[in-house]
Write a structure and sequence with these properties.
Layout: H1 38-52, H2 55-63, H3 69-73, H4 75-80, H5 92-101, H6 106-111, H7 120-132, H8 139-143, H9 150-163, H10 169-181, H11 189-203, E1 216-218, H12 222-226, H13 230-241, E2 246-247, H14 258-262, H15 265-282, E3 286-289, H16 293-301, H17 303-307, E4 314-317, H18 318-327, E5 339-343, H19 357-365, E6 368-369, H20 395-412, E7 416-419, H21 422-435, E8 441-443, H22 444-449
Parallel strand pairs: 1-2, 1-3, 3-4, 5-6, 5-7, 7-8
The protein binds iron/sulfur cluster (2 copies).
Length: 457
């Protein structure tokens, strides 16, 4: 399939700058990849949807009681009041496909036409709902009384959309680049090695690259490598401070997974297996994942399934690793006399379960932690997850949802804003610039690295 954008409708200007009531419903627009007829596109989408209708997805599809609780949990609905952004509505064509093609009563639905056939027009309209306006943050999932995992279903629905060539073109392009070059942002193995060297020199920290054997394989996200390279020096300082046997490795360093975000299951697997095989090759006892939310979900929660067997090493988000080090006394930190608020990355906290780890580290730093209203598992998404930050046509909507974050942060009155996800950090940086906001997002890992108490080894 080529990456050509063969049919992109013109955008109508969005007016999302002021209050919720003034929001205009955006015109339908979509991107397409590949040359194929509408019937072929529909056929491919349906076949791939049906492949994903396992028992669990089927139960979800049958369980909605239409209570509407998910709507008030979703930053898109809350900020626009547009019923199209009701989470369960975002799955309507998926549900329609299930009822007609895979449910126990599918023959009846087809015979009596109780559920009409999904059309290519519907799929094109749907693109905006499952890519531009869903960060797969899982807040809706958390409040659903029937425990319907809408975020996961959106991820599954993206599989069929990708195969049918109905992906926003920026997301398609970064996913394809990741597959081709090993990184969505041009952080090839050579670029990575060069930047590790540069950070080693710049910060006078010893870097470990391509060691044959190591207890810890340390991975990075391309956003860190390219935009926040200090993260590489920061993790090296931590590893050296505890005298760890560790390595970065040019065979498996990129932890982001745009195969997963775009909906290409094959690319997702290839990216995951690269890290797994590198970890096994160096004999790692643990893989340390970087400050990247979806990287955590991709390896920690989906890695073994992708690999087809249990992983022979631990998988830890860097905040979990830091929490373990300060808890068992291997890492001692200076006290930081500042008030801090912490933004929970959805994929690490709510979706990943590592909610307490950063708080353990913040306690060890002695900061005055000022929690936002609706923090931890209930935190609001920054609006940039799920690949949304790459989709330019979604910018106006994303900024509208970011207003929730600014409000939350401002209310705390904290001096410092921290998180443990470079994608969130990038979304905050972009929001800061757009709104001329006076708050800058900082990295928890970098704060830790700057406050290590040096001890004699
Ligand atoms: S996963 Fe998040 S963004 Fe997607 S529908 Fe649910 S609450 Fe909204
Ligand atoms: S909260 Fe759950 S049951 Fe209620 S409308 Fe949303 S998906 Fe359906």
């Amino acid at each position: 399939m080529s990456g050509d954008v063969s049919d992109t409708t013109e955008l109508q200007p969005l007016d999302l700058e002021s209050s919720r009531v003034s929001v205009q419903i955006p015109a339908v627009r979509y991107d397409q990849q590949g040359e194929m007829s509408d019937d072929e596109r529909i056929g491919i989408a349906m076949r791939n949807f049906v492949k994903d209708f396992g028992r669990v997805a089927a139960i979800y599809m049958e369980s909605c009681v239409h209570c509407g609780a998910c709507a008030e949990a979703c930053h898109y609905y809350v900020q626009t009041g547009d019923p199209r952004y009701t989470p369960i509505w975002k799955l309507e064509p998926f549900k329609q496909a299930y009822k007609r093609e895979a449910s126990p009563l599918a023959p009846v639905y087809r015979l009596l036409n109780l559920k009409s056939k999904v059309t290519v027009k519907q799929l094109r309209e749907w693109q905006e709902l499952i890519y531009d306006s869903c960060t797969m943050c899982g807040r809706c999932t958390m409040v659903c009384p029937m425990s319907i995992d809408i975020a996961t279903l959106v991820g599954l629905a993206r599989h069929g959309m990708f195969q049918a060539g109905l992906v926003p073109h920026e997301l398609w392009a970064v996913a394809e680049r990741a597959k081709r070059e090993g990184s969505p942002l041009g952080a090839t193995a050579q670029v990575f090695e060069d930047r590790v060297d540069w950070m080693g020199d710049e910060h006078e920290v010893e870097m470990h690259m391509n060691e044959d054997q190591a207890d810890y394989l340390v991975t990075m996200s391309s956003i860190e490598i390219q935009k926040y390279p200090e993260s590489m020096a920061a993790i090296a300082k931590v590893m050296n401070a505890i005298d760890a046997s560790w390595t970065f490795h040019s065979d498996g360093y990129e932890a982001t997974n745009f195969g997963m975000l775009s909906g290409n299951a094959e690319w997702q697997k290839a990216m995951t297996v690269k890290i797994i095989e590198t970890a096994i090759k160096v004999g790692a006892k643990a893989v340390i994942l970087p400050e990247c939310g979806h990287a955590y979900g991709a390896l920690r929660w989906q890695g073994a399934n992708q690999y087809g067997k249990p992983l022979p090493f631990r998988v830890m988000h860097v905040s979990e690793f830091l929490a373990e080090l300060v808890t068992n006394g291997r890492l001692k930190l200076n006290q930081v006399d500042r008030s801090v608020t912490f933004h929970d990355p959805c994929q690490v906290s709510r979706r990943g379960g590592a909610t307490q780890a950063p708080r353990v580290v913040l306690k060890a730093l002695g900061v005055d932690l000022r929690e936002m209203q609706d923090s931890a598992e209930y935190n609001w998404c920054c609006g940039g997850g799920g690949g949304v930050v790459t989709i330019h046509r979604a910018d106006a909507l994303r900024y509208k949802t970011f207003e929730i974050k600014m409000r939350q942060v401002n209310e705390t009155g904290a001096q410092m804003l921290l998180s443990t996800c470079a994608n969130c950090r990038q979304t905050f940086d972009d929001g800061q610039e757009h709104f001329h906001w006076d708050k800058t997002m900082h990295s928890l890992l970098e704060l830790v690295a700057d406050n290590i108490v040096e001890t004699e080894q």
